[in-house]
Each structure stands twice: as structure tokens, then as C-alpha cells.
């Protein structure tokens, strides 16, 4: 091994030299300081010595970092308690649920475990603490037991005083939002149908999602973005004094996926569906009762809206306004002599829209309303007016991109030798996603199913040609 010669590395010698000088200077300064202190003690009167010591401690106090001031927010388990009733604080549950997902079992000396079956929930024992980091700031949670040590009665949040604004303005709200999101994701969905004046529900386990939905990709993105914006805008709706609701009109030929889109929206938002059959609703007051009975986070669906209200319904409305109120069927819901015809026409489109706007504007809860139709041109212009339905979504025939989604759904294939032929045929033939799905479902073997689809599309193309000739 070769060491560098002195001639070849003068910089090392320079460094050593500088270091020696610095060390000598530091030693001299220390010696002078000790000497000065000794002389001052000898020569200065005791009062002056004390004054100098006090001044030095003052300077030190300013230079040394002081421990940060801390703040504590207490989240009690119970908000109030009387002899008859105990009021629990829902924020306590939110925080407990959140901390259960943040707890690091490795770092906890003691750990509480609860839950049934495979689902185990972790929590801190009374007196224990854990740290959570939010936007780079540390927040400490401590579980504090109540009187008589009957389990943890409050959760205390401690943080540096300078982060008080962040703690209350962003950190705690983010906990509630995160818990809400998890609860929504885990919630089993239901679909309700109206029976008389009430709703009856069954579980809704429709597999449709935006991933499985075959539709124009840009329209799909626009719908998703609109739903996301809607969810975030509670304050906005409150500020402008409008009901926190969003209305969608889905239109297009039968079998293009309108019902599938409704299911996909429900799955995306994790909202329950309320499928309203207007022919079952006798009169406006009954409709009002049903609408009031819909909780927040729900979707009101009225399918084939063109069959419920014709384009002449506004004229019907005008005529009805000149008749006595009793003629609209504002009577007892159970009266048996009311004919079906009266039951159907008693509800008016304007009644429905006004109820929705009026009733829901006061509740401040998020709701979605979806109308579907195969015939947009048959709809009452009142429904199509800007501002009535927030988004009109066309569900059209199966295009190339929609087909690729279906092919991925059914066979997990992104490419195939028959794809170019299918792409050409889809550009020429009007075929619904339902028809394509049906063809793809016929055989589990992608080659066979896709060949069947080519034959089907070719036959359809020929049929269309023949019908044009005839
Ligand atoms: N866009 C689509 N994406 C995925 N699957 C679809 C689509 N359209 C139709 N399908 C398939 O066809 C079936 C019927 O479609 P759907 O009921 O959603 O159509 P629709 O437009 O609501 O029809 P209708 O107007 O007759 O009620 C669905 O269950 C699904 O399997």
C-alpha cells in the first residue's frame, strides 16, 4: 500500500496547521476567561459580582431554547349524563376508531385488544400515550381513565401551542373525514322501493363499478370528477343557500348501461338507492312523505321518467291549478275508489321538482337524484331547463373504447388478433353494450366468444344494409 508523500499532499499539512492554531486560540481564550473570572471574584465587590451573575443568566436565558408551550384538547367519552339518559360523544368514537388504525403494536408497552372473530381492534390502555404525525407535526394522544378507573373516559390530544390552529382546523377534522370514509367504504348497501307511504329495503350487491362500465372514457371521467366535487362542496351549497344535491339525467337507447351507471354511482359514493315507482304514489302529499323519509347519503332514482310525465304534463299542471285541491287526490292514501289513472297523473313534475328543491334544501344533507329515459325528446322541457338536472349523460351504442372495457371485464385481454376487425365493425354497426356483453358471455374461451361477436356484428351490418335497401 502506498501512502501519499508530503510533497504530493500539501493541503493535508495546511489543514493540520490550521487545526493546531484554532486549538491554541481556544485554549488561550478559556485560560483568559478563567483568569478574568478569578480576578473579578477577587477584585469586584460582592454586590457587583451578583449583578454580573444575574446579567449573565439573563443573556443565557435568551440564548438557550426554551421548552415549547403545550396545549391539551380533551375529547370526553360522554357529553352529558342525567339520571335518565347518557349522551355519548361521537367524536370520541371517531378518534378511537382512527387511533386503532394508527397504533403501532411494536411501540406499545401495553395494548388493549377487543372485537369478535377475525376482526380485532387495538386500543391504548388507560394512562398510555401514542404519537401521530400529521403534516410533519407530532400530536400525542393519551388515554385517560375516568373516576374509579372504570375504563378510559377521555382521550387527550397534546401538541405544541403554535400548532393549535392546525390541530383544531385541520388535524381533528381530518380524523373525522378519514373515519367517515372508511365507514362509508365498509357499509353494506341497500336498495329501497316504495310501498305505500314507506320504503322497504333489500341488500344491494350490484357488481357494477366505474371500472366495469363500458362507456366513453371522457364522459366517465367527467361523471367521476363531478361526483367528487359534489361530495366536497357542503359549505359551498350552504353558502349559496341551495340544497346539497346533485341531479343527473341518463339518457340513451335500452341496453346501453343506464341502470348499470346508477349502480356504479351508488357503489362509488356508497349511498343507498331509493327506487321510486311513481305509479305507486297517489298524490303530492304521499310523495312528500316518501321524500322526507329518505335519509342523507342516498340516491333517488326514477327510471323511465318519460313514462311518468309526458311533455304535456305542464299543461296538465296548469289545468289542475284551476281545479279544487281535493281533485289532486290529497285525501286518505288508503281510499280504495281512487282509480289508477288518477293515481298516476296526480303527481306532477313540477310538484316533484319543487318538493325536492324545497324539502331537501333545509336538511343540509347530501343527496343525489337520477332520472333515466330512453327518449330524451319526450321529456317535459321543465326538466331539461338549465339548472334542473346538473348533468345530462348520454349512454350510447358500444364504441371501441367501451368494447375494450367489456373485453377486459370478461377475458382480461387488452389485445387480440380479432380486435382490428371488431373495431372496424363497431364503427359501422349500432350495437348496445348489452348485446356485446351477451355475445361475450356465450363462451369462456376468448377466441370463440370474439369470433362469435365478429359474426354477430357482420350479420347486423348486413341486416342494416338490407333494411336500408328495402
Ligand atoms: N355500458 C355498459 N357497461 C357494462 N355493461 C353493460 C353496459 N350496458 C349494458 N351492460 C350490460 O347489459 C345489462 C343491461 O344493461 P342496463 O340495464 O344497465 O341497460 P339500460 O340502459 O339501463 O337498459 P334499459 O333502458 O332497458 O333499462 C347490464 O346488466 C350489463 O350486463
Automatic annotation (TrEMBL):
Pfam family, one: AAA_assoc
Reactions catalysed according to its record: ATP + H2O = ADP + phosphate + H(+)
Signal peptide: none
Entry annotated with the keyword Magnesium: yes
Domain AAA+ ATPase: 244-399
GO biological process: response to stress
UniProt KW keywords: ATP-binding, Magnesium, Nucleotide-binding
InterPro entries: AAA+_ATPase, AAA_N_dom, At3g28540-like_C, ATPase_AAA_core, ATPase_AAA_CS, Mitochondrial_chaperone_BCS1, P-loop_NTPase
Nucleotide-binding in keyword set: yes
Family annotation (Gene3D superfamilies): 6.10.280.40, P-loop containing nucleotide triphosphate hydrolases (3.40.50.300)
Cofactor(s) needed for function: Mg(2+)
GO function terms (MF aspect): ATP binding; ATP hydrolysis activity
Family the entry assigns: Belongs to the AAA ATPase family. BCS1 subfamily.
PANTHER family xrefs: BCS1 AAA-TYPE ATPASE
Name used for this protein in its record: AAA+ ATPase domain-containing protein
